Amino acid sequence: MTEIVQILSRGLGIGSMYALLALGFVIIYKSTRVISFAQPAFMLAGAVLVTYLVGPLGFFVALPLAMLGTAMLGWGVERAAIRPMVGRPAFTVAIITLGIDVIIRVVAGAAIGINLRQVGDPWGLKSTTLFGIEVQQRHLAMIVTMTILVAILFAFFQFTTMGLAMRAAAYDQEAALAQGVSVGGVFSLSWAIAGALAAVGGTFAAIGGSVESTLWIIALVALPVIILGGLDSLPGAVIGGLLVGVVQEVIAFYQQSLPEWLGGNVSILTPYLLMLIVLLVRPYGLFGTREVERV
């Protein structure tokens, strides 16, 4: 029982980080119908910003400011590089986001330098006792933070005018435009929200270690998560992220029971195997919208 709870806490903690990254992908896709490959760069940039701000300001001030900074970066990227491409093929815009990703990662890598940079969080690898079972504080913090941010996003999309505008634009951009919705504003805001979420994901990914230029690789797991949950489903991104995190930790725990010829890193393959299995059964993901084409 103790082992199960510990595996679940680790899996849900890591899965919360995946969910935050996946939410950024989905929000941009729902608003613009483009898959942004710049999310890994936003993740790295946000974590680097925290390392610079945490010294004078402390972690709990540095993180919101880094979210704001990365949100502004996302907003700026949309205005400068993505908005002029409106109406162009989605594939072309997606390739542009790849270029943006590389540029931002190179700059962030230069900012990291050769010294170890840490986010200065208060949890590190410390454990606490929950219902008589030891769990790592960072995993609890990840779960709580993801829950709060998802609740804020839910309230934003349900109860605010801009949230309603974003939902309208996601459903039908032309109809939303005809009703006076600023679709361009929706595009910018979606990139800003995705940037802020990526900053939180990147910061939590660096907890217990240091911010390195290879940190962005973790964001790649968010790709199978969004395919698994459904490319246009926000709940799917959350559930998919948590599911991937838990399954990954279960496989990692029972790694020694698996045949040796599978190697020692089977858990790394788990997200992609899950994605493959789900795609074979439900090509649009667990919670995605099935596209109907008239011929």
UniProtKB/TrEMBL annotation:
Sorted UniProt keywords:
Amino-acid transport, Cell membrane, Membrane, Transmembrane, Transmembrane helix, Transport
Q: Transmembrane residues, as ranges?
A: 12-29, 41-69, 90-114, 140-165, 186-207, 213-231, 238-255, 261-281
Question: A single GO BP annotation from the record?
Answer: amino acid transport
Q: What topology does the record note for this protein and the membrane?
A: Multi-pass membrane protein
Q: Signal sequence span per UniProt? A: none
Supply the InterPro entries for this chain.
ABC_transp_permease, BCAA_transport_permease
Any one Gene Ontology MF annotation carried by this entry is:
transmembrane transporter activity
User: Cellular location of this protein?
Assistant: Cell membrane
Member of which family? Answer: Belongs to the binding-protein-dependent transport system permease family. LivHM subfamily.
Q: What is this protein called?
A: Branched-chain amino acid transport system permease protein
Origin species: Micromonospora kangleipakensis
